[in-house]
Design a protein that fits this description.
Blueprint (H helix, E strand, L loop, with lengths): L9 H12 L15 H4 L3 E4 L6 E7 L6 E6 L2 E6 L1 E2 L3 E4 L17 E10 L2 E7 L6 E9 L2 E8 L11 E5 L4
Parallel strand pairs: 5-7
Antiparallel strand pairs: 1-2, 1-11, 2-3, 3-4, 6-7, 7-8, 8-9, 9-10, 10-11
Length: 171
């Protein structure tokens, strides 16, 4: 190693910039709507005790800014998301990604969702200042909800414990 700077390499810099400009995180693939969208929007699902402290959740697909409301032991938070687009927020639901060592407090989040099947809404949660993201599948079956999640990397299994929800009779 020498204390002096390396000489400028314009061609390599252009090549790197082109590569960086082309990097994209893909949206989950599917349809922007489902026949069940109206029937599940606004419905609260209570979730059995779990390691992510999710106690209940509800989707709002009817607002101009769709979001997922999550009730935890600390209170209610909302995760705004785009349909085939990204919506950015900060310090919101991270589906457990905030437990990794290199994740800052109140991380920056981008979220996008789509109907990957008629009864399954897929939500991608990206902590875009880190290498981490989580893909969450919400499978609706009448008053039941099955939540399957997978992280892109982990110190151990990438598939997370399945969560089960049951619709409340009243809110």
């Amino acid at each position: 190693m020498k204390p002096a700077r390396l000489p400028e390499n314009t061609a390599a810099r252009r090549q790197l910039q082109t590569r960086l400009d082309g990097l994209r995180v893909s949206f989950p693939s599917g349809s922007p709507a489902s026949p069940i969208t109206a029937s599940v929007s606004g419905k609260w699902f209570e979730v059995a005790e779990n390691d992510r402290d999710v106690r209940a959740l509800s989707f709002d697909f009817n607002s101009p800014s769709p979001n997922l409301a999550i009730r935890t032991g600390a209170g209610e938070i909302r995760l705004p998301f785009g349909i085939n687009s990204w919506v950015k927020s900060q310090g919101t639901f991270t589906n457990g990604l905030d437990r990794f060592l290199s994740v800052p407090a109140n991380p920056m989040v981008a979220a996008s969702g789509t109907w990957s099947a008629e009864n399954t809404f897929t939500l991608k949660i990206v902590l875009y200042e880190t290498p981490f993201y989580s893909t969450v599948n919400f499978k609706f079956d009448g008053d039941n909800l099955v939540i399957d999640s997978e992280q892109n990397v982990a110190f151990g299994p990438t598939k997370m414990t399945q969560l089960l929800g049951k619709a409340r009779a009243t809110e």
